[in-house]
């Protein structure tokens, strides 16, 4: 065990039929195996680990915790709780908990005496909220700058929901919840942007993993399934489709890999992350289409494990930002920013 | 005229709260009450002759009715196979006694059929079926397991393809049987879709004793009979309208807010493709009505149409991006989107996969040169 890296140990924990099957069990198993990545882990390793979670459909907010919540908390100067974390962004009504009663100018809540706030509103479809120790929330503060809040379970009402794969996606209802100053930070606009692209990259890394799962399951299926006296993989039409599936999955993997490699250089890591998010979302349709087609009817049922990957892919492509939004961002940057080619090549 | 009557009927159903507007309603919308109300108006078994309880109106008028039903996402799956396949097949191949026994009940919306063709090892390669029917003193004994049998848990009968002659060549030794699904020697075992829904089954046939009159058509003609039915099965409006209710819901959403030129253009492009595929499908229906062979044309329609059903989903996602939610309010745009997505793997598989269809198309092309 000691010769293995944290990443390898973690990958082993997430694999196989006896892999932990609840968020708590995932955390416990990782901790026991000494495989919970430290806060200063290599970002590329974290992305790879999230890919593993995507491959196995690991039932826990690993992507959210490792790639989004923890780095954001660190950047905002807040200590990260040890357990699983959820991330939510959205407009909320935020007012100072202790309004400056002497200030009679401006809208209610415009002035305050400290950073303690009261928040109201609904955060919709928050991944894994019911399993998280705390929720990192990004929203606009009372005097119109972005703020980061750390909410603890019990500070909101939860309306449980799921995505197409049955993963928890809960609505969090906040009714004038008080958040003490030590869990509120005003953050620069750049960090709010970083929160977005980090979420997109985290989702893309999950998609890359599940895409690889689709490839593995499909190659195994067409290699063993016999029709007309031959394995399916021997038919030209099947080979052609299978090749396209492999290509599309490789494309996503490459985009995510490039974004992961760019992470340590903050100045130039935004565009690669957008590109990874956009390409991952865009490739889902083709990947799921071919994997299902080549599986035949069995893949359309609960009998095959394919649906564990495809229903997640169909959900993930629309979470943490849509394909259209990513494409629009890339397009705007290409049209309004530096010349295209240097942007594509990263300088 | 007929079309308007159907629309009036559907409007009344909608007002009555019958669930309408669903994608893929011919797979999952099992509602015998709805079927009976349709049958009362003469819209089930429409193309069957009057002497057998049908309304003798021919395939083109039937086409109008079923496309209206599908566009409205009406719950038609109970009678779907009886109306589309079993009825015409019994009319064509059945004995006079079989016609009198089944056709009036089909047209009355009181007798529902499943298709028992596929098996675990026989999907695309249907001629490899292993279910056997052995001759007994006064009938047949059927043994084997069918798979993917839609509706076998709720329907009355299945038309089962079985091997009756081991020695003959693959295609020659097959026969079709009408099998009563309530037979105690039949065990129906559910297979759940990836959405968790139950429409598919295994059908275990454990030495089912059949009388002589269970044979449909002639022994050994099963393959020809099956492939003869396929043009009907493949070219109908259900091969491009499964996700139309989603497009209709999308347009309703767009009407509510401001619609950008880009959104207009994309809806326009979808509409043009839809209309073109429909024309092609109609031309196959006309050919079949005139008794002309249309196997290759039917395969073409199904390949184009079923791909369109899937493409429509991705276009909808781009035109009006929302997260698809199976747990959203029934009938809302995110829920319809989720249903269409979760059903999408089926479109290009059922009724013969698109790769197999393209094989038929290119072989047809070679034959015509
Ligand atoms: C929604 C749905 C409803 C259905 N309902 C019924 C029903 O009611 N009754 C019934 O009997 N059956 C039913 N089926 C079964 C259906 O007919 C089969 O799924 C279909 O024929 C494909 O067989 P398979 O699933 O075994 O796939 P396979 O035959 O294993 O094929 C897997 C993949 O390989 C490809 N392939 C196979 N052979 C070749 C080749 N020679 N060249 C190129 N590509 C090839 C196929 O195109 C496919 O993409 C249903 C299926 C679905 C999805």
Automatic annotation (TrEMBL), chain A:
Pfam short name (any one): Acyl-CoA_dh_1
Domain Acyl-CoA dehydrogenase/oxidase C-terminal: residue ranges: 202-334
N-terminal signal peptide: none
Tree of life domain: Bacteria
GO molecular function: oxidoreductase activity, acting on the CH-CH group of donors
Keywords assigned by UniProt, alphabetized: Flavoprotein
Protein name: Acyl-CoA dehydrogenase
Native species: Kitasatospora acidiphila
Taxonomic placement: Bacteria, Bacillati, Actinomycetota, Actinomycetes, Kitasatosporales
């Amino acid at each position: 065990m000691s010769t293995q890296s944290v990443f390898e140990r973690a990958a082993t924990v997430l694999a196989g039929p006896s892999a932990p099957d609840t968020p708590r069990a995932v955390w416990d198993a990782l901790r026991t195996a000494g495989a919970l990545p430290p806060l200063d882990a290599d970002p590329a390793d974290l992305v790879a680990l999230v890919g593993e979670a995507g491959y196995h459909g690991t039932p826990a907010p690993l992507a959210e915790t490792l790639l989004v919540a923890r780095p954001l908390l660190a950047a905002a100067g807040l200590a990260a709780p040890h357990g699983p974390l959820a991330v939510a962004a959205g407009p909320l009504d935020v007012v100072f908990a202790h309004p400056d009663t002497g200030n009679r100018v401006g809208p209610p809540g415009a002035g305050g005496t400290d950073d303690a706030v009261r928040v109201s509103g609904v955060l919709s479809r928050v991944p894994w909220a019911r399993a998280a120790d705390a929720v990192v929330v990004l929203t606009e503060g009372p005097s119109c700058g972005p703020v980061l809040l750390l909410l603890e379970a019990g500070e909101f009402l939860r309306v449980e929901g799921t995505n197409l794969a049955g993963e928890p996606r809960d609505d969090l209802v906040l009714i004038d919840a008080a958040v003490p100053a030590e869990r509120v930070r005003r953050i620069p606009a750049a960090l709010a942007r970083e929160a977005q692209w980090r979420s997109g990259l985290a989702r893309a890394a999950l998609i890359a993993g599940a895409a690889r799962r689709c490839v593995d399951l499909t190659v195994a299926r067409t290699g063993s399934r016999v029709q007309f006296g031959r394995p399916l993989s021997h038919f030209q039409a099947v080979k052609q489709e299978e090749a396209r599936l492999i290509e599309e999955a490789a494309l996503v993997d490459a985009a995510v890999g490039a974004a992961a490699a760019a992470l340590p250089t903050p100045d130039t890591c935004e565009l690669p992350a957008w590109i990874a998010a956009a390409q991952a979302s865009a490739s889902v349709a083709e990947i799921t289409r071919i994997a299902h087609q080549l599986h035949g009817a069995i893949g359309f049922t609960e009998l095959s494990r394919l649906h564990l990957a495809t229903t997640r892919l169909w959900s993930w492509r629309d979470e943490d930002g849509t394909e259209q939004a990513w494409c629009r961002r890339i397009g705007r940057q290409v049209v309004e920013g530096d010349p295209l080619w240097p942007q594509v090549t990263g300088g | 005229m007929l079309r308007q009557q159907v629309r009036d009927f559907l409007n009344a159903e909608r007002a009555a709260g019958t669930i309408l507007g669903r994608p893929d309603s011919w797979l999952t919308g099992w509602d015998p009450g709805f079927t009976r109300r349709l049958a009362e108006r003469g819209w089930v078994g429409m193309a069957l002759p009057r002497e057998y309880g049908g309304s003798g109106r021919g395939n083109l008028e039937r086409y109008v009715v079923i496309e209206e039903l599908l566009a409205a996402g009406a719950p038609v799956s109970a009678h779907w196979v009886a109306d589309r396949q079993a009825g015409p097949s019994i009319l064509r191949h059945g004995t006079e006694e079989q016609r009198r026994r089944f056709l009036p009940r089909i047209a009355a919306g009181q007798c529902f059929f499943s298709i028992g063709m596929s098996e675990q090892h026989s999907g695309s390669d249907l001629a490899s079926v292993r279910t056997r029917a052995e001759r007994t003193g006064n009938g047949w004994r059927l043994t084997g397991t069918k798979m993917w049998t839609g509706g076998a848990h709720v329907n009355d009968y299945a038309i089962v393809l079985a091997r009756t002659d081991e020695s003959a060549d693959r295609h020659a030794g097959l026969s079709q049987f009408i099998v009563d699904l309530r037979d105690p020697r039949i065990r129906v075992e559910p297979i759940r879709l990836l959405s968790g829904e139950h429409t598919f089954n295994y059908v275990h046939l454990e030495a089912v004793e059949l009388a002589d009159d269970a044979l449909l058509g002639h022994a050994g003609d099963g393959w020809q009979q099956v492939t003869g039915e396929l043009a009907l099965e493949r070219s109908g409006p259900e091969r491009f309208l499964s996700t139309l209710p989603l497009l209709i819901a999308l347009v309703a959403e767009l009407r509510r807010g401001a619609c950008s030129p880009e959104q207009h253009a994309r809806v326009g492009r979808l509409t043009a493709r839809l209309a073109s595929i429909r024309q092609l499908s109609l031309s196959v229906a006309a050919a079949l009505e005139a008794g002309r062979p249309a196997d290759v044309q039917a395969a073409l329609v199904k390949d184009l149409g079923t791909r369109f059903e899937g493409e429509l989903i991705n276009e909808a996602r781009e035109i009006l991006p929302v997260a698809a939610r199976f747990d959203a309010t029934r009938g809302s745009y995110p829920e319809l989107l989720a249903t269409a997505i979760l059903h999408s793997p089926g479109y290009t598989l059922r009724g013969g996969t698109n790769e197999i269809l393209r094989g038929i198309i290119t072989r047809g092309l070679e034959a015509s040169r």
